[in-house]
């Protein structure tokens, strides 16, 4: 099974999202049942995206949310609010949330709990910085993030979580992660998941997100331990995203 999704960040208005979805639906080739494509607009475009998608086989994700059910959290949205919009996936622990907004492992775990309570699929983002990688701590950093988020969870919860590896050192730094880099870390992630149970390590989906382009998408998806892609800058262009999504068919 392959899951291929966008990472729009703070881009695309509601009107631009409607146009994007229309173009995407008109150009995506038929997909096997084991290939899911989803888009992750900003909050202001979620309703527009839901309306534009209609009954088409294109799924909807959200970039973030608060862990509380409701309350005095100005500027935040809850998991229930997203679920009412038929959001299917929620990014949790994205590297930019961790680095720019101070999200700790404890906050990430609380958000995972909230997403699961509302029957959505959390996409747990993990990854290491350039400094951590150069210090030889790449695998241990990712392992610690996984343990903090996934330890002591039951099998039902673990079966509902997706892991997305994003090499922070290859995002906006001019450095590029190779397919070998992606496969090596994906295999390491599965090794950590073995500690949670052998079956979990085989069934949990592991996505890769970091400088994905139409040129390298096929090679990345050919990695035995990579189950999908979380596409950043290239996904803002519908032409490029169609080409990338077509790599999974």
Give a brief description.
This protein has 249 residues and is an alpha/beta fold. The chain has 12 helices and 8 strands.
Explain this structure.
It is a single chain. This protein is an alpha/beta fold. It has one domain (about 1-245): Aldolase class I (TIM Barrel, Alpha-Beta Barrel), CATH 3.20.20. Helix content is about 40%, strand content about 15%. It has helices spanning about 15-25, 45-55, 80-85, 95-100, 105-115, 130-135, 140-150, 155-160, 180-195, 200-205, 215-220, 240-245, and strands at about 1-5, 35-40, 60, 90, 120-125, 160-165, 205-210, 230. An eight-stranded parallel β-barrel has the order 1-2-3-4-5-6-7-8, surrounded by five helices. Helix 2 (about 45-55) links the parallel strand 2 (about 35-40) and strand 3 (about 60). Helix 1 (about 15-25) packs parallel to helix 2 (about 45-55). The longest helix has 16 residues, at about 180-195. The N and C termini lie close together (about 10 Å).
What features would you highlight for this structure?
alpha/beta, eight-stranded parallel barrel
Provide the succession of SSEs. EHEHEHEHHEHHHEHHEHEH
Biggest sheet: strand arrangement: 1-2-3-4-5-6-7-8
Q: Residue ranges: pLDDT <50 for 5 or more in a row? A: none
* CATH C-level label: Alpha Beta
CATH homologous superfamily assignment: Aldolase class I
Name the helicity range.
40-55%
What number is the mean pLDDT? 94
CATH topology: TIM Barrel
Radius of gyration (Å): 17 Å
Residues in β-strands, percent: 5-15%
Count of separate DSSP helical elements: 12
């Amino acid at each position: 099974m392959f899951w291929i999704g966008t990472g729009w960040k703070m881009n695309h208005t509601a009107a631009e999202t409607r146009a994007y979805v229309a173009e995407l639906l008109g150009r995506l080739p038929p997909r096997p049942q084991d290939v899911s494509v989803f888009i992750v607009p900003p909050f202001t475009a979620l309703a527009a995206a839901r309306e534009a998608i209609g009954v088409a086989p294109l799924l909807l994700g959200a970039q973030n949310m608060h862990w509380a059910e409701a309350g005095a959290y100005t500027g935040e949205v809850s998991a229930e609010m997203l679920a009412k919009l038929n959001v299917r996936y929620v990014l949790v622990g994205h590297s930019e949330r961790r680095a720019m907004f101070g999200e700790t492992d404890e906050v990430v775990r609380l958000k995972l709990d909230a997403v699961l309570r509302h029957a959505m699929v959390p996409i747990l983002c993990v990854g290491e910085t350039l400094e951590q990688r150069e210090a030889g701590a790449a695998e241990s950093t990712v392992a610690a993030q996984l343990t903090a988020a996934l330890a002591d969870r039951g099998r039902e919860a673990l079966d509902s979580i997706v892991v997305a590896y994003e090499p922070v050192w290859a995002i906006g730094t001019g450095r590029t992660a190779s397919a070998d880099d992606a496969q090596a870390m994906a295999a390491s992630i599965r090794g950590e998941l073995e500690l949670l149970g052998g079956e979990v390590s085989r069934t949990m989906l592991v996505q890769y997100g970091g400088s994905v382009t139409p040129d390298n998408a096929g090679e990345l998806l050919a990695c035995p331990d990579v189950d999908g892609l979380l596409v950043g800058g290239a996904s803002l262009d519908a032409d490029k995203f169609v080409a990338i999504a077509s790599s999974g068919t």
